[in-house]
Amino acid sequence: EVVAGYAHTCALDSAGALTCWGCGGDFASGQCDVPTGSAWVAVAPGWKHTCAIDEDAAIHCWGDNSAGQSTPPAGTFVAIGAGWSHNCAAGTDGSLACWGDSSAGATTPPAGSFTAVTGGQTSTCAIAEGGALTCFGCDNEDQGQCSPPAGAFTDIGSGFFHACALRDDGEALCWGQALPGP
């Protein structure tokens, strides 16, 4: 698994080893300083922080903690998503736990049971059991990132003002801010 944050990237190998890079200059906040002693099963890099789930289903975060984004809740989790300065994780019971910057509502999840989650700049999107998408937060809804398509989805990822998800039939769909391609 390879996952990109705002200014750094992390890779998780099949043995549970985690490596992060690209954390220099003005963006250096310790987000590449992966804690030792754990095997990892999932990783989510944010802006100047990184969070990961260990083999015991606990969350660890490191790097910038100016909005509480590197202080995760206790519990057991199956999926994690990091935004600009917030995070959300799906618990083993399906509920979402969110922490960090709550100014845009991206840390106020709806009730329900969820299987996957991702964070954008000020938004969070998640896949509910059954595959339906939901997004919340979005103090800049004019970008469209909180208007997901209908259908059943199996995977999701997001960028600054957009998100993409994989439908259960294999089709990828994206919504939100569309920037010109190369």
**Major beta sheet summary:** 3 strands, antiparallel
Category by helix and strand content: mainly beta
Count of individual beta strands: 15
Q: Report helical residue fraction.
A: under 10%
Name the overall outline. Answer: globular
> Helix-strand pattern, N to C?
EEEEEEEEEEEEEEE
Number of helices: 0
Mean pLDDT: 93
The parts where pLDDT drops under 50 for at least 5 residues are: none
Which band does the percent of strand residues land in? Answer: 35-45%
* Radius of gyration based on Cα positions: 15 Å
Strand order of the largest sheet: 1-2-3
Distance between the termini: 25 Å
Summarize the structure.
Helices cover 0% and strands 43% of the residues. With 182 residues, it is mainly beta.
Draw up the topology in text.
Elements (H helix, E strand, L loop, with lengths): L1 E3 L4 E4 L5 E4 L18 E6 L3 E6 L4 E5 L13 E6 L3 E6 L4 E5 L13 E6 L3 E6 L4 E5 L15 E6 L3 E6 L4 E5 L6
Antiparallel strand pairs: 1-2, 2-3, 4-5, 5-6, 7-8, 8-9, 10-11, 11-12, 13-14, 14-15
If you had to describe this structure to a student in words, what would you say it looks like?
With 182 residues, the protein is mostly beta strands. Helices cover 0% and strands 43% of the residues. The chain is built from no helices and 15 strands. The protein has strands spanning 2-4, 9-12, 18-21, 40-45, 49-54, 59-63, 77-82, 86-91, 96-100, 114-119, 123-128, 133-137, 153-158, 162-167, 172-176. The strands form five sheets. Strands 1-2-3 form a three-stranded antiparallel sheet, with no helix packed on it. The protein has a three-stranded antiparallel sheet with strand order 4-5-6, with no helix packed on it. Strand 14 (162-167) and strand 15 form a beta hairpin. It is globular, with a radius of gyration of 15 Å.
